[in-house]
Design brief:
Elements: H1 2-12, H2 18-24, H3 29-77, H4 79-90, H5 104-141, H6 155-186, H7 188-193, H8 195-201, H9 206-220, H10 228-241, H11 243-254, H12 258-266, H13 271-309, H14 314-324, H15 329-358, H16 360-363
Length: 364
């Protein structure tokens, strides 16, 4: 049982928990205790230190912004107004609270507010569905489009929208890059001839891809009744992030062991059999390395693309909160930052697990 637990931890990427399991089982307490201290206690201490430093700077900047606000009021409105402003700030009234770097407590409150907003909006959506159920049934019978909820999306809704967009873009990138990479890997002549395309387009900014895709999509789908912002966003994400997979696939295919290729010739395998039975299995590690990089890049550029395209998602959420300028906007932006980073980490872990599941070496 213990061995199965350890193997599960290794497979899931949680090998740092192995010393804890061994310590619980009484194996080498001193050695495993020291490993737990280095790999578990020290990282937890670093998190607490990080929170402490953030809290210190948040209060320091709050004090600086407080004094600046009082001095500005004194210079423009007089001493009485300045005293009133000082009393308002010290009372904790949000209407006059200095807008500075939020403390960890403010960020937590921002997260709680976003969750409460999601619950409220979800309840409104459910009430709307119940209210329009009868009308929509009649409209459906008449062949008309149903009435849909047009209220603002919640933070959780925008997270789901971003995930849908990034997975659509990632799928597009994989469908474009893997076949193209296989073809380039099989032909050194093609690889040399088209290398300039990769080197020129690989470093192009997501802003440029967004503008180019917008021009093309809006021309092609000018008369189409559909959400063009989603199409523009996921195509831009796919084109911007596909290059790592393309390069790694071409490299993996071109570096397949010659002995494998000689065996396939002896067995007289056809082109497709050779690709799917010899080349791809041998190239899986490099292909998935490229896919992991592609997914990370896709998630990173998605935020910028959503921000610029004003399409629903975390990017537009961050921009709207920045434009809003409310007293809790900075806290909500920090919450979004940690959510974006956490999801990026989770996506990378997910790709690592898929790679282990399909890789021959991990099952051997």
């Amino acid at each position: 049982m213990g061995r199965k637990i350890l193997n599960s931890f290794h497979w899931l990427g949680f090998s740092f928990l192995e010393p804890l399991v061994r310590l619980i089982r009484g194996e080498e307490p001193k050695k495993n205790g020291l490993i737990i201290f280095r790999k578990v206690i020290v990282p937890i201490a670093s998190v607490l230190l990080f929170l402490g430093v953030c809290n210190y700077f948040a209060h320091y900047l709050y004090a600086v912004e407080r004094e600046r606000k009082i001095e500005k009021t004194l210079a423009t409105q007089g001493e009485e107004a300045a005293l009133a402003m000082q009393e308002c700030i010290d009372s904790g009234d949000l209407s006059c609270k200095p807008n500075s770097l939020p403390s960890p407590g403010d960020v937590w409150n921002g997260a709680v507010t976003l969750i409460e907003d999601h619950k409220t909006i979800s309840a409104d959506k459910e009430a709307f569905r119940e209210k329009t159920a009868g009308i929509n049934a009649k409209r459906k019978a008449q062949g008309k489009e149903p009435i849909t909820y047009t209220g603002r999306p919640s933070f959780v809704d925008q997270i789901m929208t971003s995930l849908e967009t990034v997975f659509a873009g990632f799928l597009l990138a994989a469908l474009l890059a893997i076949p193209a990479g296989i073809v380039l890997g099989l032909s050194e002549t093609l690889r040399t001839a088209l290398n300039w395309v990769i080197q020129i387009f690989k470093p192009v900014s997501p802003v440029v891809w967004l503008l180019l895709v917008s021009m093309v999509v809006k021309t092609i789908l000018a008369s189409a009744d559909m959400d063009k912002s989603f199409v523009i966003s996921f195509i831009s994400v796919g084109l911007c992030s596909m290059w790592a997979t393309l390069v790694n696939t071409a490299m993996g295919v071109s570096s397949v062991d010659k002995d494998y290729l000689n065996v396939s010739k002896v067995l007289r395998l056809g082109v497709f059999s050779n690709v799917f039975k010899v080349i791809l299995p041998s190239s899986i590690p490099l292909i998935f390395t490229g896919l992991r990089i592609t997914l990370s890049v896709a998630w990173m550029v998605l935020i910028a693309i959503e921000l610029l395209a004003q399409s629903p998602g975390l990017g537009s959420f961050v921009w709207e909160e920045f434009q809003n300028g409310a007293n809790d906007s900075n806290a909500k932006i920090i919450v979004a930052m940690f959510v974006i980073g956490g999801i990026g980490f989770a996506l990378d872990r997910m790709m690592m697990l898929v790679q282990k599941a399909v890789s021959y070496e991990s099952r051997a």
